[in-house]
Amino acid sequence: NAGVTQTPKFQVLKTGQSMTLQCAQDMNHEYMSWYRQDPGMGLRLIHYSVGAGITDQGEVPNGYNVSRSTTEDFPLRLLSAAPSQTSVYFCASSYRSGGSRNTIYFGEGSWLTVV
Amino acid sequence: KNQVEQSPQSLIILEGKNCTLQCNYTVSPFSNLRWYKQDTGRGPVSLTIMTFSENTKSNGRYTATLDADTKQSSLHITASQLSDSASYICVVSAGNTDKLIFGTGTRLQVFP
Q1: What is the DSSP string of B99-110?
Q2: What confidence tens digit (pLDDT) does each residue in A81-110 have?
Q3: Cβ-contact A40, A88 below 8 angstroms
Q4: Nearest to A48 by CA among A28, A29, A68, A62
């Protein structure tokens, strides 16, 4: 099984450009989420989805959009990239939310640099 | 405020030695506590998940303990190997929101 697949692995953007980070999972998980990881900080939740057609904001949603048209895919869109969005982004999926015992699977990460 | 604090921030040990990583949390109400291993340049991988009623959970050479009264957890690594070099992240779930609170991790380096 592929698990959680993220693309691209690395990306350099100019300030003001837009792009989409792709995330796909093949485990039929209902719950998917996007995090960013910055030096010296724990992972922070950007957006999450509890099922197809349902999304909600996390801790740091500004500057990002998401959609969930299928169970498998959960893309993250940067609307107008800013240097503050330079970070490592992780997509995660699980059968249910983090409050249950089920394992949360993370993708391999997408390294984004905004210049 | 819900917080997860890990110590030490970094740790260097020799191959074959044991080590213990600490996690203190102020999350309430508590739902569960997870330990993840994150290799450099990779995504976090789950090691253990513990709920309120569980004191100990093992996964090979990794043993996690939980003291819900003192809100402390530890991850003990036995007979360390070079492949144990990674960051170890403690994650606590807040029961009323299902929100995950991540620690900043302990960076472990194992040298031959």
Answers
A1: EEEE---EEEEE
A2: 999 999 999 999 998 776 677 899 999 999
A3: no
A4: A68
Q: Tell the burial category of B60 from Cβ atoms under 10 Å away from its Cβ (0-12, 13-18, 19+).
A: exposed
Cβ of B10 under 8 Å from any chain A Cβ?
Answer: no
- By C-alpha distance, the chain B residue nearest A97 is B98
Give B10-30 pLDDT, tens digit per residue: 999 999 999 999 999 998 888
Min Cα distance B111 → chain A (Å) is 23
Q: What's the average model confidence in pLDDT over B32-36?
A: 95
Q: To probe the interface with A, which of B98, B101, B106 has the most A CB atoms within 10 Å? A: B98
- What is the residue type of B13? I
- Is the torsion defined by CA of B100, B21, B11, B85 positive or negative? negative
Count of A-B CB contacts under 8 Å: 54
Distance CA B79, CA B19 (A): 9
CB contact A108 to B (< 8 Å): yes
Q: How far apart are CA A90 and CA A73, in angstroms?
A: 14
What count of other Cβ atoms lies within 10 Å of the Cβ of residue A87? 21
